[in-house]
Write a structure and sequence with these properties.
single chain; mainly alpha; globular; three-stranded antiparallel beta sheet; about 180 residues
Length: about 180
């Protein structure tokens, strides 16, 4: 049996440093013609059908709907990148996304004098999302994010998931009893 410490070790300084960097980093995403890029150049997502500002809003929405401090913005960006492809093939989906983002930005502008992705506090953005959570736009984005984020093998180690085990004989001899919280 293999012993694995799955607890996340974060110091107070690391928490404050990471939280501030994540907020500043997402707000300062570069939105160029057809590209969304991180400020440090570590990743970029090409945009062909949707507006780059729409993709930036979808990335921030993804982070606010499924917040995981241990995940970088690139995982959220790649989770929503499929919307651009799907919108190119489906005009009704494109309209749903563009209109939904425009409505979300209007609500943010009315309440916070800024577009949704530029609202500084997560609690304020979540409050805006709660206003639209029963609508088709929100439900479509939320539903597709589940597979977009959690089916990505690159994020599995960040959650302590070692991947499928069937081809390795199952979990009975590979961590089945690695319960350290009981």
């Amino acid at each position: 049996m293999r012993l694995v410490d799955k607890r996340t070790k974060v110091s107070r300084r690391g928490f404050l440093k990471g939280g501030g960097a994540a907020t500043v980093g997402l707000v300062t995403l570069s939105v160029g013609t057809g590209w969304i890029a991180s400020p440090d150049g570590a990743w970029a997502v090409g945009v062909k059908t949707l507006k780059p500002e729409t993709m930036q809003t979808l990335i921030q929405m993804a982070r606010d709907i499924y917040p995981h401090d241990q995940l970088g913005d690139r995982y959220y960006a790649f989770a929503v990148a499929g919307y651009d492809e799907k919108a190119g093939a489906d005009a009704s989906l494109k309209g749903l996304i563009e209109d939904g983002v425009a409505g979300l930005n209007s609500a943010a502008q009315a309440k916070h004098k800024n577009r949704y992705a530029a609202v500084a506090w997560e609690a304020d953005r979540v409050a805006l999302l709660r206003q639209i959570q029963d609508g088709k736009f929100f439900q479509t984005v939320r539903g597709n994010l589940i597979t977009g984020i959690y089916n990505n093998p690159e994020v599995w180690p960040k959650f302590g998931y070692e991947g499928p085990s069937a081809e390795k004989g199952g979990y009975i001899h590979r961590g089945f009893n690695d319960v350290d919280w009981l």
